[in-house]
Amino acid sequence: MDDRRREFLDELLTTPTPSGYEVEGQRRWIEYVEPHADEIRTDDYGNAIAVLEGEPDAPSVAVAGHGDEIGYIVRKIDDEGFVHLGRIGGSDRTVSKGQHVEIHGDDGPVNGVVGQNAIHLRDVGDETYDDIDEQRVDIGAADGDAARELIEVGDPITIASTVRDLQGSRIAGRGLDNRVGTWVAAETLRRAADADVDATLYAVSTVQEEVGLQGAKMIGDDLAPDAVVAVDVFHATDYPDVPGDETSEVALGDGPVVGRGAANHPVLADAVRAAGEDADVDVQIAADGIRTGTDADAFFTQAGGTPSLNLGLPNRYMHTPVEVVDTDDLEAAADLLVAAAERAPDSAPFSVDL
What we know:
Low-confidence stretches: none
Number of helices: 8
Distance between the termini: 43 Å
Strand content: 25-35%
Number of domains: 2
Mean pLDDT: 96
Order of helices and strands: HHEEEEEEEEHEEEHEHEEHEHEEH
CATH architecture of the largest domain: 3-Layer(aba) Sandwich
Strand order of the largest sheet: 1-2-12-3-13-16-14-15
Largest sheet: 8 strands, mixed
CATH topology of the largest domain: Aminopeptidase
């Protein structure tokens, strides 16, 4: 990944964007795509769409990632100055204690820690995990009045981790789910503009996916493309201790993951796989028997039914502060989607043959 692309990825990953509080991240995404787009659209909740106009008779394809991340929210500030947590999205109660956090108040971030009893004060071997709403943030305030001068109920909270380079092209951090997907959407549009593709391309960064696919539900009918690819992370299970009934063949560095079944439209899935073969981009395959768990589940039932596909980016340790992806998979996903956009006039219409 070249320096400018990595700089953009780091900007996305270091900008806090808990569901419902995505504005700053969406602004950075728009700044990146705007020079390459013919039009930028936004709505009242912050969904962002960059449009690359194609030929009049060519099909339209949307590539969407969600810009929000999981996190926490200030539920209550008690008289002792401790902050009571609430969930934003699927936050994991087993990884929050003992973490540094930032509370994002109106006057800037406030540092805190999620308290954990010292090992000396616990019955070791008999521990249980407190629910999120039983956990507290210590900001060092003398009392509740001092804390309330800095923060208030409803302020979002994120783990204070940052992006770390691992070996090779792998990186670790919080909230790779799914700012890496919005990176792919933006980079697909940029590369498609350079390639002068005939299809109209919509690059999309949705909001509030982690709390029910809400952003995708807001825009699907109005967008109404001929096809939509929802780019999101997918469980890579190529590490020790994965539960046996949860394993798959998906591994970091082996390419993006094409979903089959459920919302994944078979014609669109075949078209993307064929594009990968033509462009010499390796893909992996995943089975989605009931649902994809991504924005594809919202897009595919809108506008009378929109052919949709979940394209996965392999990710270890999802919904923890130490998610791991391989940036080669992100690059490969962008290459794959540009190739699919180039083939779209020949692949369309994306409908089953009855």
